[in-house]
Amino acid sequence: MPIYEYKAFATGGAVKSGIVDADSERDARSKLRRENLLVSKLQETRGGRKVRHAKGVTTGKKSSGKLASALAARAATQGPGGRETDIVSGMTRQLATLLGSGIALNEALTALVDQAEQRRVETLCREIREDIQQGLNLADALGKHPGWFTPLYVNMVRAGQASGNLDTVLARLADYLQSQRKLKRKIVGALTYPVMMIVIGMIVVTILMAKVVPEITKMLMDQNQELPPSTQVLVTASEFFKSWWWLVFLSMGIISLIFERIYKKGGPGRLRIDKLMLGMPVLGDLLRRASVARFTRTLSTLLQSGVPVIQSLEITQAVVGNRVVADATAHIRERVIEGTDIATPLKKTGAFPSTVGYMVAVGEQSGELEQMLDRIAVAYDEEIEVAAERFTSLLEPIMIILLASVVGYIVFAIVVPILEIGQVT
């Protein structure tokens, strides 16, 4: 069904704009007239255009009392959307609640359209609803929007539809997205402080070397007195910074860009980088725990949703976020295809702590692999918080000492010749 964007005059002369879905332009005008709107402009939107109708103008069926109660319950806990992950998580939670209340999928999607607070979200929900009305199932409709819904998401929905537990799978998906968001925040939070310290330190040192030090060393050289070695080194470094400071920052930018390109390209370059990062003290431990937590939670969520184990491992391989763990997951998948269990190749990869291998083996033997993987993920979430605090507390004094050493050397190299001049005088 086409979607039309309109501008119209409401009762009293107020101007309203928005979108309406209709079979034709004539049908769209008729719908708007029934809403007491006098259309001044009407045009069909394109597939990916982000549009939104005005408040107070709704389309489709009116919600039943049961639907209104479910929406009210969700509205109490729903927060404002921002990034795509947060938006998808909120939509998923809301859709799970609506379906769990016995509301039909088409009507639930209509409720999402009416509840959408952003134009692009409303257009997305309308397009999904339109595809379903034309005969597609929900998984295929979501798969047409890869920028919003990952293969993990689509496959879990497909499994939920096949098992008849779509509302349960959607609730599990919302929990998964929320947990991954929290995990990402922990990692970013642990790395934010040292990055800020490095940037601020570089700015301070650059200002000192390019502006302050040249003025003071010029005054010292005007005394026609031989400068001590420490001051001569400082003068040379200051002259370099004053003339070539832009080259320093340009080189850092180029190196960062090359590093990013190699990492995104994958292949042996990314594998070496990931191995190097995992081998770093403290930081490597934090990153390894994060990858293991992501592996276990993703695999647990997929298996609980009814996705076959081979496909679950394939999807997990793409989301673990570390090439070392991803290659280990691929190795596990190959061995499982050959007929072995998960625990045996997992132990042999060396990418996972030995405790994880033994716990997975116990889970397989007891027939509770999904629950065991979930327990591992919860345990590692707690360990990540400890590792992040340890990383920050260890790095903070190191950064302070390094910055103090550089500034202290600058002060020392300036003060020594000044004292010598005072003694001569």
Radius of gyration: 30 Å
CATH superfamily membership of the largest domain: Type II secretion system (T2SS), domain F
Biggest sheet, open or closed, and with what strands and sense?
3 strands, antiparallel
Overall, the morphology is: flat
Low-confidence stretches: 46-82
How many domains is the backbone divided into? 3
What's the β-strand tally?
3
Number of helices: 16
Q: Per DSSP, what share of the residues sits in E-state strands of 2 or more residues?
A: under 5%
Give the overall pLDDT as a whole number: 78
Which CATH architecture of the largest domain is right? Answer: Up-down Bundle
Determine the fraction of residues in helical runs and give it as a percent range.
over 70%
CATH topology of the largest domain: Receptor-associated Protein
Order of helices and strands: EEHEHHHHHHHHHHHHHHH
How far is the first residue's CA from the last residue's CA? 92 Å
Query: How are the strands of the biggest sheet laid out side by side?
Result: 2-1-3
Question: How would you describe this structure to a colleague?
Answer:
The chain has 425 residues and is mainly alpha-helical. Helix content is 73%, strand content 5%. It contains 16 helices and three strands. Strands 2-1-3 form a three-stranded antiparallel beta sheet, covered by helices on one side. Strand 1 and strand 2 form a beta hairpin.
Topology, pairings included?
Elements lengths: L2 E7 L5 E7 L3 H10 L3 E7 L20 H11 L8 H17 L4 H11 L3 H15 L4 H6 L7 H13 L2 H56 L7 H37 L1 H12 L4 H22 L4 H11 L3 H15 L5 H7 L4 H13 L2 H56 L1
Antiparallel strand pairs: 1-2, 1-3
Helix pairs in contact: 2-3, 3-4, 3-8, 4-5, 7-8, 8-9, 8-11, 8-16, 9-10, 9-16, 11-12, 11-16, 12-13, 13-14, 14-15, 15-16
